[in-house]
User: Fold these one by one.
Assistant:
Number 1:
Amino acid sequence: MKISMINGSQKRGVSNSGIILGRLSDLLKEKHDLKFYDSGLKQFSNVIFEEIISGDVIVLSFPLFVYSIPSNTLKMLIELENIIKQKQDKKLILFALINCGFYEGIQNVTAFEIVMNWCERSGVIFGGGIGQGAGEMLGFFKNTPLNKSPFANLERALETMTEKIEIKKPFEITYLNPYFPRFLWKIMAVRNWNTLASKNGLKKKDIRRKL
Ligand SMILES: Cc1cc2nc3c(=O)[nH]c(=O)nc-3n(C[C@H](O)[C@H](O)[C@H](O)COP(=O)(O)O)c2cc1C
């Protein structure tokens, strides 16, 4: 089966969307023809869109931006919809992997509704997917097998999703929090934000400033 794996993160190098997509790829790569695309970094040419619609399955992995889809990826979906309507004859199925910065995976609920509506409008089967919370923590465990990390539940959900992808049947939407105390996650997150702010020449008070 031909599977298009689309990463919607705008990060160069390691991204959390890429980490989740990478683990799913490991589970699928033996038996299927996987093609990788970055919708967060560059716009797709018509050749790429045609490659995607000639496949069987799309897996779209992206970060939550303001409870929604990052603009580059939304633009890609709008263009993909047009190409599908003009040229597609067989049914595609799309699975989504959405990760967010906040701890609770349920924060991704509106983004899933948008993806579901896009599928209905484009004539694509909505395959459901995984809404992962505490996405920025994934990077800390990128060298640990997922099933031995606080993301063991993500590993199990990806395994079940793999079974559904292989038979082209929808997976339910699964919202996941990590197995990690929320208060510790918060301490780590605040430290991380402060370090990032300082690297960008900002002070703590700049982060708290209200516009
Ligand atoms: C512009 C912007 C908006 C964001 N909006 C949200 C949001 O609404 N809710 C949330 O939980 N995280 C939000 N985040 C955090 C990202 O979803 C989170 O850091 C994610 O893990 C990044 O994934 P990536 O490494 O694949 O790009 C936002 C990040 C950015 C840069």
Number 2:
Amino acid sequence: MRPITKLITEIVMSIDKHSLYDCLQLISENAKILFKADSCIIYLYDVAEDDLYVGACSGSHIDHTEDFRLKIGAGVAGWVAQNHQSVIIPDVSKDRRYLDEVNLNESGIKKRKSLIAVPLRAFDNLLGVMELERQGGKIFSNHDITRLKPLANIIALAVPRGADEGFAKLAEVCIRFLEEKDRYTHGHSLRVMRYAMIIADEIMLPASQKEELRLCALLHDIGKVVIKDTLLSKEGPLTRQELQTIRMHPTIGYNIVEKISKSLSKKILSHHEHYDGNGYPDCLKGEDIPLVSRIISIADTLDAITTERPYRIAANIDYAVKEVQRNSGVQFDPVLVDAMVQAYDKGVLTLVKI
Ligand SMILES: [Fe+2]
Ligand SMILES: [Fe+2]
């Protein structure tokens, strides 16, 4: 496992075991090592004060104590927070923002320093800024920013927010992270959600269950966040070991989502169960599989067949509907397959494009 994936796995699996600050400290210390940086600061956004404060830091810092606050727009981190943009500074002594941030004049910088900073965001809301610094002429590159992005998204996942917006944001952060990992999953979660809603409307699923279905569909593959990118997009057949690893994603998803909702996590766990009991991970059968999971299973297959994969080209929706029908009562719930066919015959079920 690549070091960055290993760190992300560790964070995701231990969010509930550590306090937010322990978790951020763990991230900052590991990020410093992974990026061969001399220091790492994770700033958090204080909505009430409209400024940034230090959530965690590792390495040597000037004036970055516990009470250090930075106004939005001030310094490098403040600029990143204001503009919602990452920044690479090859030489901080030539950047006014840095000098302002640490209250230094140019002569106060002994060695040449390079810096990168990325915003921590969920939807368009700012949660904080992560900043890494190198000394002695080792300059950061665009590649470092690309590597830092998934980590920044995971940190955003660890930062708590208001109860009303928590879950939707978590979903958005996770999906964005997944889609950065694997280009073949691009738009997958959203399309699965749309197909699932079409089936839900056809069976007149009550509004409360529809909301649960919507979130579950968006998060159903969240467990893939800890599976290696190269494995997710591997071309050609998978070995037994690789298949076993991929098949762990419902259980990993369960472990992640369980911390927020037990009810949702159970449905995510069962999205690869088959109606005849030959699915995984628990070989559940028929109506022992939650209804929401049975709907997602059909929606997931419709999208898998109609999108290009590393090993095959995309088929059309007519073919996908026939394939699902062929597996009615085997992989899929026959009542739900009938509902899907009705929606298709009425012209409600068409190819979802995102
Ligand atoms: Fe899945
Ligand atoms: Fe999926």
